[in-house]
């Protein structure tokens, strides 16, 4: 083959010999022998170009777009909304929320493109001139400023670090080229607008719009968009509210961006002429940071959202969730103000006792929605929620559950015998100090003494029907009713109605007197069951969840039969009579209002739980010195008197009856 090819290549031999570098150059003397010929110069340049091209090709082929995004770039805040859809709070380290490109007005997009990369839709993803300038500055001055397309900036935001090095700049260029071939320009622009830093703690143009103009990005005009676009050059230099120098720079940049939009045909001269006045942003960003009571609301909603939607802690912390709660802003305000008034009065009347006073309250609808809670004076100082705490006994506020159990299951006077029905007209002994009995005889405590039941104040009522005993809060009939019905049945009925099994007290006679420790939320939920004709819906604080606008599947509680409708009607009727007896002038006769006060053993807690307009509200007042122990102290006047009950006063003001 060589013999056959030789004759054909022979004519090229002289040229090959001339191209072959002969160095130092023959026929030259002195320093001239070391100067390459023009052919050698051309050959060297072409060889270098080929080597560089091959190197870039290999680098391009070997570069993969990272699969794992920069977690900080993808992290967003979670937004909580009131039941009316208005924002309540935001949580998370980063204030950012993704917005689909279709929801960002075209003029807003082009304001950014005019400021940063007008030929974005036609460029290859990188700017050769800009990269060259950046590399020159790196070598000569030690930084890599300038020269980035929007694609490059997006790559830096979500895939790389902010380190100013030549290697990072090279990697950025390679990924940008590859990304430009794999993603559409609109996808890249959407990602860029959602990950860029705009100052005031905001990432993404949606949060920037809310922080600087107090509205969603969909409502921005071109003039306001130009202000936000100027911030991409550096919020510390272009936020006009920070200094006079910043304001001057911002106005100049704003004007230039609008003129640039005209130059590239994205804003007509007539439209530009309407934007003569600089659109001043808000002095401080409009934020919805968690505050004193909203901390408790957020805590409840967050716990429920994770459980109901099966969201892991990791995913939830990455953010982007919109949590639409059941909390009613007006009811929350009314409840908070009612407790605040009670606190202030306690500080005046009982200054020493008020230091250790605690107030828990919650409002729950008959269909399970938690409308309002009072969790404490400040979550930052007290890190637990009074409305959700199982801290103190329910006391005589527990009696309706004993009554419901008796009506539902009947009573047994002999061990193993048939159950005898109980009605509201069933009569029990209402005297004080009545001995508690079992089918075998008196009930003995561990010390060998016969257990006796007592009424508040040691008052005796004689023989009394169960409905009247509940209406008047007579304890002794219900202690015996609990024994006759079976304390296990009492516990099951209370749990079915809404109390947690973990909060139920020991199954001893005092169970009927409220040795259980339910939270205010659970007490309100339990009373709501009676108002809902015996169906119980688990209390919930979140009605729906979305993530970046897309629905997140979640479980919503469904009503379950707790007690018979007739049983619930009898209990509710007795609770209505209880309210009318104690507070005859506090509601119109036609109003559906029911409720009952409750006191715990040793005056350690005072309750009022009642239902008005299908909303049950529970209020508890107690004292604990958290610096010493979790043991409840005597109220010592903080909860008022029977005639002037503090829990009832809070309840009445919160429900609009006080």
What tags apply to this protein structure?
Penicillin binding protein transpeptidase fold; elongated; 21 strands; 5-stranded antiparallel sheet; transmembrane helix; 4 domains; alpha+beta; 658 residues; Beta-lactamase; 5-stranded mixed sheet
Shape label:
elongated
Q: Architecture of the largest domain in CATH?
A: 3-Layer(aba) Sandwich
**Approximately how much helix is present in the residues?**
40-55%
**What is the average per-residue confidence, as pLDDT, rounded to a whole number?**
86
In DSSP terms, counting alpha (H) and pi (I) runs of 4 or more, how many helices?
25
Largest sheet: 5 strands, mixed
Distance between the termini: 111 Å
Return the CATH class of the largest domain.
Alpha Beta
Radius of gyration: 38 Å
Q: How much beta, percentage-wise?
A: 5-15%
Assembly form of the protein: single chain
Enter the CATH topology name of the largest domain: Beta-lactamase
Tally of distinct domains: 4
Number of distinct beta strands = 21
Domain Glycosyl transferase family: 85-261
Transmembrane segments: 41-60
Keywords: Carboxypeptidase, Cell shape, Cell wall biogenesis/degradation, Glycosyltransferase, Hydrolase, Membrane, Multifunctional enzyme, Peptidoglycan synthesis, Protease, Transferase, Transmembrane, Transmembrane helix
GO molecular function: penicillin binding; peptidoglycan glycosyltransferase activity; serine-type D-Ala-D-Ala carboxypeptidase activity
